[in-house]
């Protein structure tokens, strides 16, 4: 399943392709993998403080010497991208000496691939066929039982009435 995030009902972030664009336009910007990972980390936890240490541990294997300046630079690049292409300067809030908070409204859109859709359709149809066969067999057994019970009842009624 491919996850897409929609930021402020305008900006679409495709986690699989690494592209970001306005929701109803075709022109997209491909993010470098590190920026994409940072954006996804922030956007998947909107309105929550994410500590610098958490981000560095996740994206730079906990190496603060490399991670601290690299994180500051990556946040700056994301802000520049949001300003330049989407006129959205205030999506990432800095909490000095603590970390960052993504302040956009974020919605997740799960996109099911065509092959998965076909499999779901096949499985659904198989379940439907299975249920239909079970229903027909149940009806057949019910009618057979009714005939057996009904036949025995009428046999006794008729033979009892003749004697």
Walk me through the structure:
56% of the residues lie in helices and 20% in strands. The chain is α+β, with helices and mostly antiparallel strands and 163 residues long. The strands form two sheets. It has a five-stranded antiparallel sheet with strand order 4-3-2-1-8, covered by helices on one side. The protein has a three-stranded antiparallel sheet with strand order 5-7-6. The chain is elongated.
Helix content: 55-70%
Q: For the report, how would you describe the main beta sheet?
A: 5 strands, antiparallel
Average pLDDT figure: 82
- The end-to-end distance, rounded to whole angstroms, is 75 Å
The class by helix and strand makeup works out as alpha+beta
Computed over alpha carbons, the radius of gyration is 31 Å
Low-confidence stretches: none
Order of strands, main sheet, comes to 4-3-2-1-8
- Total helical elements: 4
Q: What is the 3D form? A: elongated
N-to-C SSE string, H for helix and E for strand: EEEEHEHHEEEH
SS elements, strand count = 8
Q: Which percent band covers the strand fraction?
A: 15-25%
Topology summary:
Layout: E1 2-7, E2 11-14, E3 19-22, E4 29-30, H1 33-43, E5 49-51, H2 52-59, H3 64-86, E6 92-95, E7 99-102, E8 106-111, H4 114-162
Antiparallel strand pairs: 1-2, 1-8, 2-3, 3-4, 5-7, 6-7
């Amino acid at each position: 399943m491919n996850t897409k995030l929609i930021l402020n009902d305008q900006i679409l972030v495709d986690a699989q392709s690494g592209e970001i664009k306005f929701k109803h336009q075709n022109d997209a910007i491909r993010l470098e993998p590190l920026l994409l990972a940072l954006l996804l980390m922030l956007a998947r936890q909107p309105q929550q403080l994410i500590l610098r240490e958490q981000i560095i541990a996740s994206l730079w294997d906990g190496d603060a010497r490399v991670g601290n300046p690299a994180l500051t630079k990556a946040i700056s690049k994301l802000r520049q991208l949001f300003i330049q292409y989407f006129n959205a300067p205030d999506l990432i809030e800095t909490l000095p000496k603590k970390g960052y908070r993504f302040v956009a409204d974020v919605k997740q859109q799960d996109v099911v691939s065509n092959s998965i859709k076909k499999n779901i359709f096949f499985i659904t149809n198989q379940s439907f066929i299975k249920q239909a066969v079970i229903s027909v067999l149940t009806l057949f057994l019910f009618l057979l039982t009714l005939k057996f019970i009904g036949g025995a009842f009428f046999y006794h009624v008729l033979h009892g009435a003749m004697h």
